[in-house]
Amino acid sequence: MAVIPDDLLYTADHEYIQLGRDGVAQIGITDYAQQELGDIVYVELPKVGAKFQAHDVFGTVEAVKAVSELFSPIAGEVVEINTRLDKEPALINSDPYGAGWMLKLRVADPKNREGLLTAAQYAERVGA
Amino acid sequence: MVTPPVSAAENMAVDHALLRRARKTGESVLRVYSWREPTVSLGRNQPAQGAYDAERAKELGVSIVRRPTGGRAVVHWREVTYSVTAPIRGRLSESYVATNRLLVNALQRLGVDADLAGDQTPIPKLSTSPCFDAAAPGEVVARGRKLVGSAQWREDGATMQHGSILIDDDQPLLAAIATQPTPLPAAPATLHTLLGRAPGPDAIAAALHDALDATLSAPAEPFTFDTETCREAAVLRAHYEADAWTWRR
User: Fold this and answer.
1) Structural contact between residues B11 and B81, judged by C-beta atoms closer than 8 angstroms
2) For residues B70 and B151, is the Cβ–Cβ distance under 8 A?
């Protein structure tokens, strides 16, 4: 059973976003996504300073046999990436909402939440 | 669809264009193909810089291309490559299992006692060691050795899985182009050793076609390239020919 925390927002592509009060959002993939992918062996993340629009590809994640693209849930600029994932990509499997976070984005417009799903909407979508 | 042997970059570009087509049209395509010259295909994210000698490969007449899919290096020569491009429907993990079951069905039609590797199979690490060195859970094996090396790419609502079905073992060629002395991996399973004969690409393609028809409610329709897919493939070929992509890691 996938964990879907109530205090996060989600995309249909299985990313989550945690919006902070400082305008910086933490982004990763959901517990459901990591379960579907299986053991993750590599993550390709953008450089700090990269800018994305909502639904832009910001990286890829490689599980044992499948590569999946990662989509930005929201427009913004990368202010930090999780460098631990370079050597420990399996953190995404073990703690997707904690130590397995992928990047922090300074959000272009914190009030714009177009296309984002609540926990209940995401749970309904994935049948959880 | 069976396509004639083309260059390494063109093969990857065609698969990529078919993935885009699947997203746009919602249609799935099973393609069976081979390669114009011996080719090493690298996994999308595997390390390659400094690990393989491009000049030595050229001397041996071996092409090197990097796949859009994950996994490790494969030598394509006395083998058949398949690709399945399809829109993602249902759970992400189901398409991988479904395609591998199709492969097992096709191989059994050829007389091979093929099966899927169990969930307890150890997870291979991303490295320069050959793809056929070890099977991952759910991959196609025969007599305990890997027979088909497969990898998948999921992009925005569509998925592409391609893989190599070995007729004979050319994987030691990887050691021949490695920059460091590399011990030869254990021999993979091949159709030749399993059957005592080497079926041709047409026989393998026919078995795949029959296996596909057996899983569908209506027979599969022959595929003809449309202009847009051809144009996309022509553009994408430059991407797969570029050193910036091949030697990105």
Assistant:
1) yes
2) yes
Q: What is the tens place of the pLDDT at every residue in A19-51? A: 998 999 999 999 999 998 889 999 999 999 999
DSSP single-letter state for residue B6: B
Q: How far apart are CA A30 and CA A9, in angstroms?
A: 10
Quote the minimal CA–CA distance from B2 to chain A in Å.
24
Task: Sort out which chain B residues have CB atoms less than 8 A from A87's CB and list them.
Answer: none
| CA distance readout (Å), B46 to A126, B57, B128, B156 | 31, 18, 7, 22
CB contact at 8 A, B140 and B150: yes
Sites in chain A below the pLDDT cut of 70: 65, 128
Tracing tokens 């050829």 back to the chain, one arrives at: B110
Q: Is the ipTM of this complex over 0.95?
A: no
CA nearest to A40, candidates A59, A67, A19: A67
CB neighbours of residue A60 within 10 Å = 20
Catalytic site includes residue B131:
yes
In this prediction, residues B36-64 reach a mean pLDDT of 96
Whole-angstrom distance, CA of residue B242 vs CA of residue A97: 37
* Sheet containing A24-29, strands listed edge to edge, beginning at the edge strand earlier in sequence: A9-10, A15-19, A24-29, A103-107, A76-81, A51-52
Cβ distance B156 to A13 less than 8 Å, yes or no, reads yes
Of A33, A18, A29, give the one whose Cα is nearest residue A126. Answer: A33
Give pLDDT tens digits for B99-123: 999 999 999 999 999 999 887 666 6
d(CA A34, CA B243): 32
Strand partners, A61: A43, A68
pLDDT of residue B61: 97
Residue A3 CA to residue A18 CA, distance in Å, equals 15
Beta-carbon separation of B91 and A42 below 8 A = no
Q: What is the DSSP letter of A115?
A: T
